[in-house]
């Protein structure tokens, strides 16, 4: 279990002083803050017991740089794709480019996942892919979306149990707007097949940040 | 100053027990955890001094629901647009739709800001706007981007000092991918003019979450 607690202003100041001047005695910290040693005792207790500071007899307080400070990452790492994902928007691979664009507007989505005849993930098309196509000479009413899609195995995917942090990293590094959330099956010829169970988007991530901020 | 510290596993368990059974004495908590009262003392000290628990003589520990638990929002609220924003991609309003699309691909951006003759913000076009246009009959080589852009004052903007949390809210609620970051000037006729100084995108927000998770 991870919970986060907030340091008060004085605890923050103590931390700054120890970072700068440590090792430093409690008396010296008290002097710098113009308070009594006794008044500082609870704050110093919180800081040592929570792993921010080390207290050594006859030496004083030192800052533990490998301590538990700012472990917001542990909190963030609790979130999984299943906690934030949306419904997937899919089309069949015979769908025309024009119909794919219409689907994109109707569903108000950024990317569309393309399924093969058996209903497994075969490709993905983004707004960018579609926009590029409309600049060319292709007859978008006739050409199927499968001609322009990014195909498996070149698709970055996620699973429901992936950490949001890891998925965010994938989205940022591969410069995509969303990832299909998939379940993997092994086919009769030992090939991997992916059932699409959702999508995880930059909007889902932005919403998570908003949820965390408004708790 | 806000810093966050992490509770250890036992402190988490104590919190759960007090939430469920409080008011409860230290002895009873120790029994439930099968440890001595003395062993619990440091943990109970952290929890009371950090504002999670209240300790009343002859009554026991109670949970402070209005305490400082989970104040991740305070940390998030420290971040401003200037901490995460990117460079703006701009075109003049006489720019053709075709050239705007080319700029979008060259700069690899989602939205383009359109400037008036004086260089102030006048409009915005998104990938979605451009894609919609290419479906129509317009000659994208001739029609200027100003014909299809969203115009001031219908543009949602941000400033460098806006909180990331507030800007994230705007982006999610208005279902846009990015906001122009602007500086406001008062023109000679008392009209407001906006200089574009950057853009803030869902990618910037995703990167912030990643930075926080990897600290």
UniProtKB/TrEMBL annotation, chains A, B:
<dbReference type="InterPro" id="IPR001034">
    <property type="entry name" value="DeoR_HTH"/>
</dbReference>
<feature type="domain" description="HTH deoR-type">
    <location>
        <begin position="7"/>
        <end position="71"/>
    </location>
</feature>
<keyword id="KW-0129">CBS domain</keyword>
<dbReference type="InterPro" id="IPR051462">
    <property type="entry name" value="CBS_domain-containing"/>
</dbReference>
<dbReference type="GO" id="GO:0003700">
    <property type="term" value="F:DNA-binding transcription factor activity"/>
</dbReference>
<dbReference type="Pfam" id="PF00571">
    <property type="entry name" value="CBS"/>
</dbReference>
<keyword id="KW-0804">Transcription</keyword>
<dbReference type="InterPro" id="IPR016842">
    <property type="entry name" value="UCP026546_HTH-CBS"/>
</dbReference>
<protein>
    <submittedName>
        <fullName>Uncharacterized conserved protein UCP026546, HtH-CBS</fullName>
    </submittedName>
</protein>
<keyword id="KW-0677">Repeat</keyword>
<keyword id="KW-0805">Transcription regulation</keyword>
<feature type="domain" description="CBS">
    <location>
        <begin position="149"/>
        <end position="215"/>
    </location>
</feature>
<dbReference type="InterPro" id="IPR046342">
    <property type="entry name" value="CBS_dom_sf"/>
</dbReference>
<dbReference type="InterPro" id="IPR036390">
    <property type="entry name" value="WH_DNA-bd_sf"/>
</dbReference>
<dbReference type="InterPro" id="IPR013196">
    <property type="entry name" value="HTH_11"/>
</dbReference>
<dbReference type="InterPro" id="IPR036388">
    <property type="entry name" value="WH-like_DNA-bd_sf"/>
</dbReference>
<dbReference type="InterPro" id="IPR000644">
    <property type="entry name" value="CBS_dom"/>
</dbReference>
<dbReference type="Pfam" id="PF08279">
    <property type="entry name" value="HTH_11"/>
</dbReference>
<feature type="domain" description="CBS">
    <location>
        <begin position="84"/>
        <end position="140"/>
    </location>
</feature>
